[in-house]
Amino acid sequence: MNDLTNFIYPNIQLHQPDEYFLDRTVLSFRNDEVDEINATILDKFPGEKHVFMGVDSIDLDNPHDGNYNPSPMEYLNSLNVSGLPLAKLVLKVGCPIMLLRNLDPSQGLCNGTWMRVLAIHSRVLHCKIISGDARFANKEVMIPRIQLSPSAETLPIPLKCCQYPVHLAFAMTINKS
Predict the structure, then answer these.
(1) Which secondary-structure segment (H or E) carries 24?
(2) 3-state SS of 41-82?
(3) How far apart are CA 14 and CA 123, in angstroms?
């Protein structure tokens, strides 16, 4: 995998302009491979790691049928459900990320929008839009943590997760490309 990541992202250990990230990504069929590739490249990326654990809980007001066994929080925090941010999100200032939700389409914050992290604050990510609608190119935005819940078909546990609705964008599944 080292040869592949070095070929796609040469000199990733140096600070790169936004355009560097627009012309390249690693594609994979599987989410677990994407997560592994993103983690590997992030390790080479300059800067300090910031770790954000999703705040997970059981949604007692959710209309699931109730046929589930209560699960320990450690187990819930280990789940990575397709379409939801990772339970453990690791970011660095400058890294490329992809928005996973339509937060405010009128401001360019749509599912699939690529951004770069400019700063990491206690409750928001300060980012710059680097892809998508040209009207929003280079626009600086704030991305808050939001509460998300998977559908009953995706996960039979009525889970609530509070996390930044983003994913690292060094690699992605072919479905997201």
Answers:
(1) none
(2) HHHHCCCCCEEEECEEEECCCCCCCCCCCCCCHHHHHHCCCC
(3) 28
Going by C-alpha positions, the residue among 48, 20, 3, 34 that lies closest to residue 168 is 34
Residue matched to tokens 């929008």: 113
CA angle 83, 123, 148 (to 5 degrees): 25
* Predicted local confidence at residue 2, as pLDDT: 85
Euclidean distance between CA atoms 93 and 3, whole angstroms = 25
The SS3 assignment for 105 reads helix
The CA–CA distances, whole Å, from 162 to 3, 55, 89, 136, 145 equal 36, 5, 12, 26, 6
Q: Give the end-to-end CA distance of the chain in Å, rounded to a whole number.
A: 20
Produce one character per residue of 16-50: b if its CB has 16 or more CB atoms within 10 Å, e if not: bebebbeeebbebeebeebbebbebbbeebeeeee
CA 85 – CA 161 distance, rounded (Å): 9
Task: Give the C-alpha separation, 30 to 107, whole Å.
Answer: 31
Model pLDDT for residues 127-145, shown as the tens digit of each residue: 999 998 889 999 999 999 9
Q: Ramachandran region of residue 2, left (φ > 0), alpha (ψ -120 to 50) or beta?
A: alpha
